[in-house]
Amino acid sequence: MKGRTLVIGIVLFVIIVVGLIYFMMMSTINQIKEEKNEETSMAVIQVVEDRQHVTIE
Question: Is the pTM of this model over 0.90?
């Protein structure tokens, strides 16, 4: 019975650790995507502002 309980405990531990690593990776990937989107948005805003200044002048 002790061996079976130990195996169940190890399996649950591995599943929890793998789940935590997965969610940490997904969080990091989403954060990187958001940062890239913000950089792209800022670049687009800058281009639009530059064009407005050119047409106004």
Answer: no
